[in-house]
Amino acid sequence: MTRFSSLLAATALAATVFAGAAQADYPERTITMVVPFAAGGPTDTVARLVAESMSKDLGQQVIVENVGGAGGTLGAGRVASAEADGYTVLLHHIGMATSATLYRKLAYDTLNAFDYVGLVTEVPMTIVARKDLEPTDLKSLVEYAKGNKDTVTVANAGIGAASHLCGMLFMSAIETSLVTVPYKGTGPAMTDLLGGQVDIMCDQTTNTTKQIQGGTIKAFAVTSPARLDIFPDLPTAVEGGLPGFEVGIWHGVYTPKGTPPEAIAKLEGALQKALKDENVAARFAELGTKPSSDADATPAALKAKLEGEIARWKPIIEKAGQYAD
């Protein structure tokens, strides 16, 4: 071996050792968790609880950055194009799957632009209405909606929002198109429901629990497989007469494609520890949800969930014909 080739080999070995050491020391600085929705919303609430707890295990602060707009696709695109070094992660909900069909043009390939860390939680939905709406149970609500389909309004927080997806599923289940009223966020939509300007909304327990408990809106059903401890007297949608109507707004953590496996492993471990944090579990319970299990808080489980949900929602979205440019 020549002196020059020996020098090259030594340099390559040193670079490999340095890279390995760098990954072993990960993280060495602040990690940014991008939430593709506005601060104060349901997904932001989940993210901030998890980020705070993950920071303790990782030994570095995990800060939340809100990059809202275009149904979550702007924030997802921001992460897809970020450096794949483990210092930029994405916490997104079910919209990660539905945007693949809802948006005719995306700046990223949903299934190939990200690596996976794990599932965080699956938040149940609630079918609610303004408090003075005439129906008293889900069966009479369906009959009322069908009989007044040209005037009954269904509010949502915008294309791709959880409330938009659940509203589409509700209209598909009752085989009736209603008047859809999109807002620029969950807050304005709930404000108008509270004020009686719109009739119905289907949204996450993280956004409706306080109003249901306060009696300021009328609740008809939860969309979980079983009744919730927080609302023991509120029937499931299936119990209320909508067979197969089960939907939860699941959340997962992603990184840009090509993130070093060592970094993903540390993020996965920190996520799993965060989901065992008593404070996180208690706050999730107050919001009508619970942390994902260790089996679900894994890259493989999140990847399988995303692929399955894209396949599930594609025909529903195509039937509704509610696309975004």
Automatic annotation (TrEMBL):
Keywords: Signal. SUPFAM superfamilies: Periplasmic binding protein-like II. Residues 1-24 form the signal peptide. InterPro entries: BUG, Bug_dom1. It holds the Pfam family TctC. Belongs to the UPF0065 (bug) family. This is Tripartite tricarboxylate transporter substrate binding protein BugD. It comes from Ferranicluibacter rubi.
